Amino acid sequence: MARKSFPMKPLVSFLSEIPFRLPRNVDVFRWNNVSISNAIHDRPVKFQKYISLVQRSGQLSNQTLVFHLEGALLRSSSLFPYFMPVAFEAAGGIFRSVLLFLLYPLVWLVGKEMGLKIMVFVCFVGIRKDKFRVGTAVLPRFFLEDVGREGFDIVMSCGKKIAVSDLPTVMVEGFLKDYLSIEAVVGRELKVINGYFVGLMEDKKAGAVALNERLGEKIMGSHAIAFGSFSFFLDEQLFTHCEEVYWVTDAEKKNWHVLPRKRYPKPLIFQDGRLAFRPTPLATLAMFMWIPLGFFLFITRLIVSLLLPYKVAFPILASSGMRSVMSIPEPLATSNKKQEKRRGTLYVCNHRTMIDPLYVAAALLKPSLAAATHRLDKFNAVVAPIKTISLIRDREKDAKTMDKLLSQGDLVLFPEGTTSREPYQLRFSPLFAEMSDDIVPVALDVQVSMFYGSTAVGLKCLDSVFQLLNPYPTCNVKILEKVPSSETYRLGGKSRFEVANYVQNEIAESLGFECTSLTRKDKYKILAGMSQGGKKRSPRAKLRFPAKLYFGRRTFLRAVSTSQIISGVHIPLGPVIPMRSKALK
After folding, report:
1. Could you tell me if residue 169 is inside a domain?
2. Can you cite a GO biological process for this protein (predicted)?
């Protein structure tokens, strides 16, 4: 039997699709212009420079703008920082992120289209479509931090706005619609089999039909203009419906300024994800180099805080990089009634991380301080060096628990009920106002450089681990003046809502934060698509470890639950802040 020859034709066909990176001196405009001229046929199109669009920005209120997200709005031309959070937050995140980083040289070499396909495959293969929340909970922060003020002004000055992106739609749609109020988003669609992403994008030719249909419906009968960049090759479908095309060069984009937070169309109140930095290739390399040393520091910091007394542990923790800035007022004169002299002081704090009670105990030098928090997992309860009690969100039972703790000593309480990262304060639960009139507000502000020590849908048991993995975690602790008797529930005759509002405003004013009426329910609806307030929750898919752990005669089966997202429900991010200038009634 004759041996069959190797099929060279498919191999050559595959290799021919790899567009290796062109030299830097290639005339990109001429290359794009040829493709565009072939696409638009005989339709007249005016090509103009970006500066021409800036000069007429005041006359665009009635115009329809078709803009390219990466080319016209974002300052950076690299797509890697947007895929790394997707890989890091997905199942098997550390392995996906390492693989994505190792493949980055190949991604850079083979060109943008093939490199994009590689990054999409690594980040999305095997992920359930109905559980993907990174596009709405994590990526908006990275996009907003990279928006150029000049490009933003042009886009927002137009009446009708349509965004086109080379990125998958699930990555950009939440940011564009929820934060910029874009009417339509046209991105790359991902292939799905049995509810799972397979890591492949739909063919551009197939997507071009949908692009023409969607753009045709939006632009039909209007004078549309296009806005893009030289560094991104815009498909010809972008220009077939536009009469004017404006280009911005990379040199011009380098002079763009970062969009200030106060100019966000909708405030960024809630955001999730572990990465606290922009994961550029160099920053990601630094992270992977730091993790082994950071894990050693985590073990050291944990052992020191558990075994050594505060006065001995403070210098050691400070030498490991942990920083605390404490502000404590002069001792307050105690004028409590006789029946409350034996009760402890209630320290009411805003909530930033899972180890906030430790910062407060360290500032007060009270290792006997007790803490009451919500959703405390068993791991953090075991490793906590102070007494920590988990509240169950039952008013009567929680009131009895707090009353018992106050009868035994001082208590730290977090009325927000959940952590918050941004400079906003959630609504305070007023239950604490009924527990005691001896209330001391405490303002906390935590800064991290690498990892966030909180998450909405991730593993809660790793919150303290990620917080202590940071090279220089810093916490500012401000012990404020005791709440005056005239502003308390029993002695002052104020309602519990008025007391809660007063304490919230005092803490927010000392930190420069903004008060909102949003609650933990709003946070979990926005970030996780589920309710955390009642007993009935969204369905949860369990990820079980196959092996059982045997310790003596007892058998333990550990299971980690990950939230099941309700598909088909659009929950907008970044709601308008409902301010509370008056007490709730």
Report:
1. yes
2. cutin biosynthetic process
